[in-house]
Specification:
heterodimer; A: 318 residues; mainly alpha; 2 strands; 71% helix; 4% strand; B: 447 residues; alpha/beta; Rossmann fold; 2 domains; 44% helix; 13% strand; disordered N terminus
Amino acid sequence: MGTLYAIFVDPFMQMGSAPDLLVQTLWEGLVAGVLYALIALGFVLIFKASGVFNFAQGIMVVFAALTLVGLYEKGVPAWIAVFLTLGVMFLLAVTIERVVLRPLVNQPDIILFMATFGITYFLIGFGESLFGGNPKQMIAGELGLPRGAVEVKMLGGFVAFQKIDIAAAVIASAMIAGLAVFFQYTRIGRALRAVADSHKAALSVGISLNQIWVIVWFAAGIVALVTGIMWGARSDVSFALEIVALKALPVLILGGFTSVPGAIVGGLLIGVGEKLGEFYWGPLIGGGIESWLAYFIALAFLLFRPQGLFGDKIIERI
Amino acid sequence: MRRTSLTRRAARGAAIGALIAAGAFSVPALAQDSVYFANNAYRTGPFSGSGIPIGDGMRDYITMINERDGGVNGVKIVYEECETGYDTKKSIECYEQAKAKGTIIYSPWSTGATLAAIPRAHVDKIPILSMAYGLSASADGNTFPWVFIPPLTYWDGASVMVRHMANELGGMDKLKGKKLGLIHLDAPFGKEPIPILENLAKKYGFEVKLYPVAAADMQNQGSLWLSIRRDRPDYLYNQGWGAMNPTAVKEAVKNGFPINKLVGVWWAGGDDDARAGGAEAKGYKSLNFNAAGTNFPVIQDIIKHVVDKGKSLAPKDKVGENLYNRGVYNSMLVVEAIRNAQKITGKKVVTGEDMRRGLEALNITEARLKEIGMEGFASPVKITCSDHSGHLKAYVAEWDGTKWTKGSDWMDPLKEEVRPVIEANAKDYAEKNAGWPKRTEACDTPS
């Protein structure tokens, strides 16, 4: 009886007795959710264009952030370092297309997937050789990102909105919206969607598969840089950030691997779900449930909608 | 023609195979008067932020001893790192390599790696030095003759934290009704202080709240800090490592938790950990058992003989940082143990079994610390056959915004509380591990 009360009644009593903490938890969940959505978007872009689950997306976040901070430490002004980092991510996209993807055209998807493991471990080693393993401070102030918090008195308490979190939410949302518009309404976007539907049909109407791959890998690189800046500003820039990027996996399971809106909604659901779960139900089993709760939410959801929230329902004849 | 080509290819293959085999089983070329010391390191991966300065400090002290003194009584130390990335599975490979190469001491550098090595080392007769980390119960030398855990265990550390709280509050009786939060990595290292904190909480009437952090969420601690805001602990003790620490300091600042009430275990006292919090991190505290800074003859000698000669991996501005000096302290223990083993056995080139004797009779006095350029750097170290830790003093270091300073006097752990729990847990370990060997090793000094 006591257990049932602790699971089904007490958390809601807590929400009612301290509504300011509920709002704070929802806000934290939304911010985390937007950032998860941004990471997931990097995966979705590449999956849509090539059918490859890019395991290297996490290390691309680290590599982009380290390149930015590394250039700044070499004396390059912050904003020039941002543009140079974008250049590096473009070169990376071209190299990956030329060296990894092009020779593997027509190979089974699993081969391409395994190739992204290779890219991951190469970038880890290459990154450590270039930048060392020491954590670095993100140049948040130099990039004009705000510090401090806005405290709003409400509901008998207060809710603290960190300015960096507000900035992260705004920038990530703008980025997601920009990418969605780009791929929905531009010629390149239409080409991408054509490639996603059928490589052969796209090739037959003159769309260059290689060019599209470079574009999506570069777009994923831009997403990686923005994610690295935002997440790096919240903690620091180190190879541990790669683990954070794997938070996008339950988002993808939930939202579907091919859907941009799915990445957004999935990110928000996972972000809010895991924060509420950890805060209100975590103490019942000793806390620290956040790392697996996201997967639990996603897998429970799949029971009812196996293709994910917005994923394509695939029916194949046997 | 074709046969020649095939023969050549086969010969080349055989040569490569031989090279690989030679590489896998090679033993470092040791000069006659040298000893081999294998150290696990993690210069890569999520914990490299803590692993690099420690590895640099360890390496530089050994290099300095070789360069300045020509080794220990003329015996050079061949020092090698094995990269684990803080991965216990990899650490076992490193242990096996170290054993094959004849290491005189094994330095695991993670609690998980120590736990994995303890049963092996008792069979292989290789002493383990887990300096202020690892299995707290291994301080019982009667059960664990091959494990050494000076200058204090995690249980001692947790008890020093409780003493520090009591000192600030005005006495042990003032602990009643207070709340101490433990933020800890959800791994063997992070969980180590829980039993002793729960014991002390029962005895002194304070409450312990646990805040586990999964390795995957080291940089994603938002929910945890919301729980801290809800629970309002009076103090927080951070048993964190790697990327978890700077994030915790940042989150404390961000959430307005009084930074001077956040105290890290000694491993949460990296300069980069505190620096991450910016100006608001001023006042962040960490337990410590070594001094930070370069104002010690030993560090000056390292700069002169190693850093300035380009033989260090550390940037010069990192020399003297807290974790760097911690690495120096660790290597100092190894060197002093070699010296002691030489003295006890009368041999110049000592073995692992000799090192065990050297460690077990280690007695580094104030006078000796002065001789080796470490006056004021650390407190004296004394290990006995039954007490492999010493349960020595620690102090609270305070971040002044740019560097670590001494924020309290040296404090003794609550040894009378810790020691019985250590002995009970050691007994329990031996009982649970069927066939655990009874100590047969002789004792060189009376305990």
